[in-house]
TrEMBL record:
It comes from Clostridium perfringens. SUPFAM superfamilies: FMN-dependent nitroreductase-like. Residues 2-133 form the Putative nitroreductase TM1586 domain. The lineage of its organism: Bacteria, Bacillati, Bacillota, Clostridia, Eubacteriales. It comes from the Bacteria. Transmembrane segments: none annotated. It holds the Pfam family TM1586_NiRdase. Gene3D superfamilies: NADH Oxidase. This is Nitroreductase Nfs. One of its GO terms (molecular function) is oxidoreductase activity.
Length: 164
């Protein structure tokens, strides 16, 4: 109602200026910033290029799998997790890469990344926050845990969400 907008910036801001403003210590990093304010008028070329990609999200069946990466998981077959996983699909990510891949095994969720974990931590963290908030809102209880998951994959394991 206030007409405010947000964005998160990872590689297109001056870290030096922000680091000085927040008194960043030598042993700290500043991977992203998220300004809040009124949307400006004309977009820069970079903003236009990035903005043109905002509606190009991957399909549900490209991101979520059932038991193995060979079996795509439909929203219908995801059952009580269907909408929670849709919240993950809709989560913002750098240039809409959506680097997460998720396997549902019974009632547990195992999260993987396409690419290096370090490069995708922020995106995956945001997506998993969407999942966590939605499941809590719907009374679906579970917790994130690091597990020794034995699933063959070309993706890199990140974390699991174990149903209580």
């Amino acid at each position: 109602s206030l007409g405010l907008g947000t964005v998160w910036l990872g590689g297109s801001f001056s870290r030096g200026d922000f680091a000085k403003a927040i008194n960043l210590k030598d042993n700290e990093i500043l991977p992203i910033v998220s300004p809040v304010g009124y949307e400006g008028g004309k977009k820069s070329l970079l903003a236009s290029i990035i903005g043109n990609n905002k509606n190009n999200r991957k399909k549900y069946l490209e991101l979520f799998f059932n038991e193995s990466f060979n079996i795509p998981l439909s929203m219908e077959n995801a059952k009580e997790y269907g909408e929670a996983l849709e919240m993950v699909r809709l989560a913002p990510s750098a240039v809409n890469k959506q680097p997460w891949r998720i396997i549902k095994v019974n009632k547990d969720i195992h999260v993987y990344t396409k690419g290096k974990v370090d490069m995708n931590r922020i995106d995956i963290g945001i997506a998993l926050c969407h999942f966590d908030l939605y499941t809590k809102e719907k009374g679906i209880n579970g917790e994130f845990k690091f597990m020794n998951v034995n699933i063959q994959s070309k993706y890199e394991y990140v974390i699991s969400w174990i149903r209580e």
